[in-house]
Amino acid sequence: MSAGCAPTPLAGVWQDGRIATRLWDIYGRRVTLDLRVLVADPLLWHELDTGARRSLERGTLRHGTEILLLLGRRLDDTATRGILGASGLE
Question: Do 31 and 13 touch, CB atoms closer than 8 A?
Fold first, then answer.
């Protein structure tokens, strides 16, 4: 995302199997996101989560809020396992 570019409000989220998540905005534009990308880039997850919360507050996110909650938990669990493994506490 470039500086000065306002994010487009998120309208929905759909889980497509265990790997992909599909997102769409209020204009109908869609993107499929591989969950491994979010695991590898926590900043991207933070941006997605922040935008989703903003969209929920504004009332544009109408589908998939439970998917985002589960996705957040899954990513947190994966990050925790990685930290524990790297520190030898696994």
Answer: no
How far is C-alpha 63 from the chain's CA centre?
A: 14
Alpha-carbon span 17 to 73, nearest angstrom:
17
Cα end-to-end span (Å), the chain: 36
- Residue 11 has a CB neighbour count (10 Å cut-off) of 19
Helices (H) and strands (E) in the chain, counts: 3, 3
Alpha-carbon distance of 12 to 25, in angstroms, equals 7
Tokens of 53: 């919360």
Note the pLDDT of residue 21. 87
pLDDT digits (tens, 9 = 90+) for 22-54: 999 999 999 998 888 888 888 898 899 999 999
pTM: 0.75
